[in-house]
Design goal:
Elements: E1 5-9, H1 16-29, E2 34-38, H2 44-54, H3 63-87, E3 91-95, H4 98-108, H5 113-124, E4 131-136, H6 139-146, H7 160-176, E5 181-185, H8 190-204
Parallel strand pairs: 1-3, 1-4, 2-3, 4-5
Helix pairs in contact: 1-8, 2-3, 3-5, 4-7
The structure holds P1-(5'-adenosyl)P5-(5'-thymidyl)pentaphosphate (T5A).
P1-(5'-adenosyl)P5-(5'-thymidyl)pentaphosphate binds next to helix 1, helix 4, helix 6 and helix 8.
């Protein structure tokens, strides 16, 4: 039996990291073996690519270069971590995946969605998440939460309008792919967010 592939998405500061820990507890409490990972990253090579992608020294990186680095890291991640884990019957919980590319490089940077779809097909074939949890908050809430931390990375230095486009792209994808997407109102206090996550995870368990 193969495992499940669950992804967590949203703009900066929605609470992905905070809620990944909670999701991990829920899934493991149900007796599932689970690997928790993230994108860009998840492998030694992917983490090296992540460092390049987030480094403010590369402000102004060509958007096509950014796009292809995302998929380069993803190809390695799929080959070394995601697919072998799922094939072994274990579950994978991933902080961001290809929907982030549609939202950030497509929505945010304005790259052609068709170009992203071609790379998606090339790197993934028909492989898609079983469940995508979109943590949604108004941009000003997410940025205020994210802003309480250390120095901003290359993406966090973008303007509010960029994140408005990212959020809009996520919500459009959630409407289009409503078979696998669940939208969580992450502007609520943490215990309410976790209650929503409980309900969704029970359906897949
Ligand atoms: N990217 C990634 C692309 O452009 N294309 C791609 O294809 C991919 C895969 C990666 C960057 O790469 C880009 C997108 C990103 O910019 P990242 O580290 O994955 O970066 O993403 P970030 O969004 O930067 O992660 P953050 O750490 O900023 O946000 P989180 O994890 O969503 O937020 P978290 O959990 O750290 O919470 C932020 C603060 O809010 C509080 C927390 O305690 C914390 O202080 N908080 C709440 N406060 C009140 N109420 C709640 N309900 C709260 N939930 C959390």
């Amino acid at each position: 039996m193969t495992g499940k592939f669950i992804t967590v998405e949203g703009i900066e500061g929605v609470g992905k990291t905070t809620n990944m820990e909670y999701l991990q507890q829920l899934i493991m409490a149900a007796g599932k073996e689970l690997v928790v990972t993230r994108e860009p990253g998840g492998t030694p090579l992917g983490e090296a690519i992540r460092t390049l992608l987030l480094d403010p020294a590369y402000k102004g990186m060509d958007p096509d270069c950014e796009l292809q680095l995302m998929f380069a890291a993803r190809a390695e991640h799929l080959d070394k971590v995601i697919k072998p884990t799922i094939e072994a019957g274990r579950w994978v919980l991933c902080d961001r995946f290809t929907d982030a590319t549609y939202a950030y490089q497509g929505g945010g940077r304005g790259l052609d969605m068709e170009k992203i779809a071609i790379l998606e097909q090339l790197v993934q074939g028909d492989f898609r998440p079983d469940l995508t949890l979109l943590l949604d908050v108004p941009v000003e809430v997410g940025l205020a939460r994210a802003g309480n931390r250390s120095a901003p990375d290359r993406f966090e230095q973008e303007q509010v309008e960029f994140f408005e486009r990212v959020r809009r792209a996520y919500l459009e994808m959630a409407a289009t792919h409503n078979d696998r997407y669940r939208v969580i109102d992450a502007s609520q206090p943490l215990e309410n967010v976790q209650r929503q996550l409980d309900t969704v995870i029970k359906t897949i368990l």
